[in-house]
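testing teh design pipeline on a random one, pls ignore if ur not involved
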């Protein structure tokens, strides 16, 4: 900002283009950007309309114009845009094809006679026989050649801003369809291009320029920088051609034949992979108009590119952005999109931190009932996928001796050896698959997970692992919107099975267990009958002591779900025999973790597990009242357990108090079986309110109140 109100900047009288550029940059950075952009735009257009003073040039004006239309596109009138359209036609199409003259250094030995400049050349060294473009090569460039390059660099932005019908003249909107079609025919004929309005003429010359770039990209560049420039210009040219076709459909067929040939030429060359994206975008936008089946283009794109170029950060970002921009079209019309989700996840596994936000948009579109189970497995194996991709890259760059065939009889000593070992080959192939394979069994990855544990501590694998909990949460939230009862049961089975089959990263396991635990409750609320339908699997899981030690979170929530939903209130198929089997299994678990051990070993489980087990046993006993004496006897023993020196040395006073309080509440409640059954077995229609209780099995406040009343008036309690 100006240091004084008396000191103001103005661009209205400035004739020097370089000074104008400096002043306008300051004006555009100040508070009222729209007013500044309008003033700058007016001044730039006025200078472009007239003849510049001697020694001045337009090279400083185009960057200013680009800034103006970025800040405030509406600042230019139709007449002003036509001025720019005419100038851009001249700059793009009629730049000199002779090289510029070297500027004399002014030194003592500078030659008074400079050699006449020769013609510009193509990137392969041959003399250019067509008009100048950004891919034309010279030792020095003339002023109009620099403007040619600048005009091309801002052409896309200009066409998007002012090339559509919305910015045309009011009269052009009133033309009949016949007149419009005649105009399209005229614009398709370059010999009549001078008869066209400025906007249509710029469109025609821009199309010719892009066609010339496509032709120039077919030449073999003598220098690597020129080859890189070819690829960059090809991407821009195809993108601009797509924009032109969207603004005028008469260009579609000319572009279609051009891009078909181009795609056939570059599709096998991975160095042109980024160019395939704008080509695919063109077919998405115009294949219906041109009545062309372009599915082969998308199949090649989704199957080959991610598998081979997942390690390219720029391509990964552009590829995922391309998918995001076309989600609706892909999900509604092309099955290859969802089928290729294992391939797309390679981008995420390798570039996790930079792509996590993009995949938050992508994952819900990739997820459907057919891909849900396989995708859940893949998310849980994402760190292993990152490790496998690393091994794949290292194997591709290994020396001949390292690539020597492995002896099938010898167990591999490293991941690199395992990658080529027959025993692990099919596992690697499944993990690195390019399309969904719902019929294959993920169990084959179990030995591979253990082997890849040796590289689990690499920074890339750790970064990848940190993204999994967030994506898991999104996965379950999305699946909950469409999952039927069968799919929910399958998800729960995967949850139980995979809770101990994860990448060997302690922090990763803890985070995943936390997410899986919370999502188990979500699935149970959606389909409470799953506890009855999966009783065999849940009984096996809850009756395994190792699950308490290795995955306490998951185990705790499974036990809570059993106590909450194993009831005829939720499923009429629930039987007393099922309740008794669960009771016996959980009673054995509680006995196992609370039996008194030597002080050195200490109790194996947290107070939370103990209180949840006590509460679940009480709930089950309230529904099969023959079990009440057994659980009551067990609860009375908890005081001796807590007060034993072996326990007191491990649990804090607060932990011990929590166990005793819960045991006391449950004991008091069981003295009134009918009340216990009412308090601990909510009706299914009240599940919404009851589901708000603490998932760690804290009892409702009403039950605690009953417990206090019973303690105060024990003489009135029957029996």
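output:
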């Amino acid at each position: 900002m100006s240091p004084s109100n008396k000191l103001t900047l103005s661009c209205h009288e400035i004739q020097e283009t370089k000074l104008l550029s400096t002043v306008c940059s300051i004006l555009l950075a100040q508070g009222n950007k729209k007013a500044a952009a309008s003033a700058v735009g007016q001044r730039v257009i006025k200078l472009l309309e007239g003849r510049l003073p001697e020694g001045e040039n337009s090279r400083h004006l185009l960057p200013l114009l680009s800034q103006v239309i970025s800040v405030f596109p509406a600042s230019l009138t139709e007449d002003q845009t036509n001025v720019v359209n005419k100038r851009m036609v001249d700059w793009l199409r009629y730049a000199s094809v002779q090289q510029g003259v070297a500027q004399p250094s002014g030194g003592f030995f500078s030659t008074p006679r400079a050699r006449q400049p020769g013609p510009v050349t193509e990137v392969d060294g041959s003399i250019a026989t067509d008009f100048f473009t950004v891919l034309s090569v010279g030792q020095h460039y003339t002023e109009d050649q620099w403007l040619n390059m600048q005009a091309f660099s801002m052409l896309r932005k200009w066409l998007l801003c002012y090339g559509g019908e919305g910015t045309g003249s009011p009269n052009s909107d009133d033309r009949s369809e016949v007149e419009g079609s005649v105009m399209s025919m005229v614009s398709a004929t370059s010999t009549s291009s001078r008869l066209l309005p400025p906007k249509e003429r710029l469109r025609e010359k821009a199309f010719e320029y892009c066609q010339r770039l496509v032709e120039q990209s077919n030449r073999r560049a003598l220098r690597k920088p020129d080859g890189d420039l070819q690829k960059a210009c090809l991407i821009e040219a195809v993108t601009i051609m797509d924009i032109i076709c969207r603004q005028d459909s008469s260009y579609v067929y000319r572009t279609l034949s051009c891009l078909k040939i181009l795609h056939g030429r570059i599709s096998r060359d991975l160095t042109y992979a980024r160019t395939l994206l704008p080509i695919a975008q063109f077919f998405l936008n115009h294949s219906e108009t041109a009545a062309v089946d372009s599915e082969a283009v998308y199949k090649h794109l989704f199957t080959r590119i991610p598998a081979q170029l997942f390690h390219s950060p720029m391509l990964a970002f552009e590829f995922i952005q391309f998918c995001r921009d076309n989600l609706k079209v892909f999900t509604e019309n092309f099955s290859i999109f969802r089928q290729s989700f294992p391939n797309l996840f390679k981008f995420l596994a390798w570039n996790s931190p930079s792509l996590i936000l993009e995949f938050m948009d992508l994952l819900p579109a990739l997820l459907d009932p057919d891909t849900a189970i396989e995708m859940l497995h893949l998310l849980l194996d994402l760190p292993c996928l990152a490790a496998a991709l690393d091994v794949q890259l290292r194997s591709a760059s290994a020396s001949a001796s390292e690539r020597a065939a492995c002896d099938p009889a010898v167990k591999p000593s490293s991941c690199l050896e395992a990658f080529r070992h027959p025993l692990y080959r099919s596992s690697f192939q499944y993990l690195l698959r390019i399309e969904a394979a719902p019929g294959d069994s993920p169990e084959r990855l179990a030995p591979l997970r253990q082997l890849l544990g040796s590289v689990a501590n690499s920074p890339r694998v750790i970064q990848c692992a940190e993204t999994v909990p967030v994506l898991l949460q999104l996965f379950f939230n999305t699946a909950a919107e469409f999952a039927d009862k069968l799919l929910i049961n399958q998800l729960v089975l995967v949850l139980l099975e995979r809770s101990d089959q994860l990448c060997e990263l302690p922090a990763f396991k803890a985070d995943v267990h936390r997410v899986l635990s919370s999502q188990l409750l979500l699935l149970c609320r959606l389909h409470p009958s799953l506890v009855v339908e999966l009783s065999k699997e849940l009984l096996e899981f809850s009756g395994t002591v190792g699950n308490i030690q290795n995955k306490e979170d998951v185990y705790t929530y499974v036990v809570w779900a059993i106590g909450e939903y194993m009831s005829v209130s939720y499923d009429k198929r629930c039987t007393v025999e099922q309740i008794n089997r669960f009771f016996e299994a959980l009673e054995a678990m509680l006995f196992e973790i609370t039996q008194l051990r030597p002080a050195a070993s200490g109790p194996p489980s947290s107070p939370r597990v103990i209180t949840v087990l006590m509460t679940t046993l009480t709930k089950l006993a309230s529904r099969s009242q023959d079990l009440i004496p057994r659980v009551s006897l067990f609860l009375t023993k908890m005081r001796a357990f807590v007060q034993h020196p072996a326990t007191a040395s491990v649990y804090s006073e607060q932990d011990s108090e929590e166990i005793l309080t819960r045991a006391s509440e449950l004991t008091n409640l069981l003295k009134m079986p009918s009340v216990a059954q009412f308090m601990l077995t909510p009706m299914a229609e009240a599940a919404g309110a009851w589901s708000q209780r603490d998932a760690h099995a804290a009892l409702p406040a009403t039950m605690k109140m009953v417990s206090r009343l019973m303690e105060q008036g024990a003489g009135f309690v029957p029996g």
